[in-house]
Write a structure and sequence with these properties.
Elements: E1 5-8, H1 10-16, E2 31-33, E3 45-48, E4 51-55, E5 60-71, E6 74-86, E7 98-105, E8 108-112, E9 115-119, E10 121-125, E11 130-142, E12 145-155, E13 160-164, E14 171-173
Antiparallel strand pairs: 1-3, 2-13, 3-5, 4-5, 5-6, 6-7, 6-8, 7-10, 8-9, 9-11, 10-11, 11-12, 12-13, 12-14
InterPro entries: LPS_export_LptA (IPR052037), OstA-like_N (IPR005653)
Keywords: Signal
Pfam family, one: LptD_N
Length: 182
C-alpha cells in the first residue's frame, strides 16, 4: 500500500488526535492551559504515509515512513504512527474503530499557524485523555516565544499542561512584543 492516501472518519481519529500546544506569555514555567493546536470533531482528517499495515486480529494499524496527519490548519508529522484500537468487529478501513492509544516515533512535529512542537516521540492515551510528548528535548514555540523541556503532558479534556525539565530546569524565552495589545 505504498504511497497511498488514507482517509479515516474524523469521529474516529479526531478523538485520538486532540492536542493543544500554545503557552501564553503569562504562562507559569511548568504548568499552563494549552488551547492552541486542536483538531475538530467535524472536519475531515487526511493521513498519508509511505506504508500502512493493518492487523485487525491484533487491533493495530502501523503507518510508517513520512507519516503526515492533516486536519484544517493543523499538521502532525512523524516517522511512524501506531494506532491501537478496540471493539468487536472494529476495522480501521471501515472507520468503525474505537481508538485506545496512538504512539508516534521517529521525530514528531506538530504545527498550526504560528504554534509548533517537536519531540522524539509522542503518545495519546484515550482512556486517561492524556497526550505526552517526550525525548531528549521537547521544544514548543508560538511565534518568538520558545519553551524547552524533556516531557510535555497535556490533559486533553481540560487543556491543562505540564512541561518537565531534562534533569535541570525548564527553559523559557518570552518575547515581550508577543503580548496581546490592550
Amino acid at each position: 500500500m505504498t504511497n497511498r492516501l488514507f482517509r479515516i472518519s474524523s469521529a474516529v481519529m479526531a478523538t485520538g488526535l486532540m492536542f493543544g500546544l500554545a503557552f501564553s506569555a503569562t504562562a507559569q514555567t511548568t504548568s499552563s492551559k494549552m488551547e492552541g493546536l486542536k483538531l475538530s470533531n467535524d472536519a475531515p482528517i487526511q493521513i498519508q504515509s509511505d506504508q500502512l499495515e493493518i492487523k485487525d486480529q491484533e487491533k493495530r494499524a502501523f503507518f510508517t515512513g513520512n507519516v503526515q496527519v492533516v486536519q484544517g490548519t493543523t499538521t502532525m508529522k512523524a516517522g511512524k504512527m501506531t494506532v491501537l484500537y478496540k471493539g468487536e468487529g472494529a476495522s480501521v478501513t471501515s472507520g468503525s474503530t474505537d481508538i485506545d492509544k496512538i504512539f508516534l516515533d521517529d521525530t514528531v512535529f506538530l504545527t498550526s499557524g504560528t504554534q509548533q512542537a517537536t519531540a522524539e516521540k509522542g503518545e495519546f492515551d484515550m482512556t486517561s485523555q492524556t497526550f505526552v510528548l517526550s525525548g531528549k528535548q521537547v521544544v514548543l514555540s508560538e511565534g518568538a516565544n520558545v519553551f524547552r523541556g524533556c516531557k510535555l503532558t497535556v490533559q486533553m479534556a481540560t487543556g491543562q499542561a505540564k512541561l518537565d525539565s531534562c534533569g535541570g530546569r525548564v527553559e523559557i524565552m518570552l518575547d515581550p512584543k508577543s503580548r496581546p495589545k490592550q
